[in-house]
Every structure is written in C-alpha cells, then in structure tokens.
Design goal:
two-stranded antiparallel ribbon; Gyrase A, domain 2; alpha+beta; four-stranded antiparallel β-sheet; 2 domains; Topoisomerase I, Chain A, domain 4
C-alpha cells in the first residue's frame, strides 16, 4: 500500500513540473511560437460564447517574428483580433480577410526584466505546489504511523523519500526557470 502512495506522490510531482513547463510556454521570448497564444480566449459573437483561440483555427509560425492564424470560420476574424488585443500580451494583429497575422515585436530591456520577474514568480508558485504535495504525503504517512499501519522506522524512511522527491522536483523547477530566464534575456 505504501508503494502505491509513493507512486502516486511521484505522479503528483510530475504533474507539478509538467504544469510549470506548460506555464513557461506562455512567456514570450521574442520568438514566435503557437503556444504563445494558448492563453488567449476569444468571445465569438456569432457562437455566443468564449472559446480558446486554438479551437477557432490553426496557428503557425512561418518565421521567428510572425504568427499566422488561419480561422476555420472567416467570420470570426474580427473576434479573434479583439481577443488577441485584449489578452494583455502586447500584440497587434492584422488581417487580410482570410488569415490573421500577428507580428511579434522585439523585446525591450525593460520588458525582458518584467518577463524574468514573471518567470521567477511562476517558479515560486511551482515550488509552493511541490511543497503542498510534500505536506500532503507527510501528513498521510504520519497518519498511517498513528494508526499503527506502519512503524516509526518506516515513517522515517518514507519522510526521507518524500523529502528527496521534493528536492528533485524543486531542482528541476529551478533548472527550467534558469533556462527560461536565459532564453528571455538572450538578445
């Protein structure tokens, strides 16, 4: 039973890291990537609801400074433009009636520093999520020891494994954060 808990804990730590990696893809580094628009929600008047942009058309990056959105329904082009402008990404789309072009402007030094601060905040949030996982499993194993399902020696061994897993997760978060910060600062 304890092995199942440890396996579940490992899965939870993997989810923390995967969530952090996904969050990092939304940080603009000066290069165009379709994932940059993953967080954009578009209110489509003709459908009467808000939808993720990637469900309204295909997004591609033909070069390092341009994203192209080819909507499946050409009538949604004005809504797509409004959604991108309102997303807070600082992007100004344009269209030719068939596709939406989103030029990716070069980052200023000040904007790069803002993005680095945002990456550090995301990393700290991910570390907090990792510590929540640690606390959850520490409490679980302490409860098992209280109920006499495991011995004190087993509890000590499990707490040590939990701490090692937490340290590994935090180290991976720090590595990803440092790599993203370097990418953002690269001119």
């Amino acid at each position: 039973m304890s092995a199942e808990y440890l396996q579940s804990m490992g899965d939870d730590f993997k989810k923390v890291i995967a969530g952090f990696e996904k969050e990092l893809t939304t940080v603009r580094t000066g290069r165009a990537t379709p994932q940059l628009l993953d967080s954009v929600s578009v209110h489509v008047a003709s459908y009467g609801s808000a939808m993720p942009l990637n469900q309204l058309g295909s997004i591609s990056a033909p070069d390092a400074r341009m994203l192209v959105i080819n909507p499946w329904d050409k009538g949604t082009i004005p809504d797509i433009e409004k959604g991108i402008i309102g997303s807070g990404l600082g992007l100004n789309p344009s269209n030719d009636g068939q596709i939406v072009r989103v030029p990716i402007p070069a980052l200023t030094g000040e904007r790069r520093q803002e993005l680095v601060r945002a990456v550090k905040k995301m990393a700290e949030d991910a570390r907090i999520r990792a510590r929540h996982v640690r606390r959850e499993y520490n409490d679980l194993f302490k409860e098992l020891e209280t109920e006499k399902e495991i011995s004190q020696d087993d509890l000590d061994r499990f707490l040590k494994k939990i701490q090692e897993s937490t340290d590994g997760c935090v180290t991976r978060i720090d590595e990803l954060s440092a790599a993203k910060e370097q990418e953002v600062l690269e001119v």
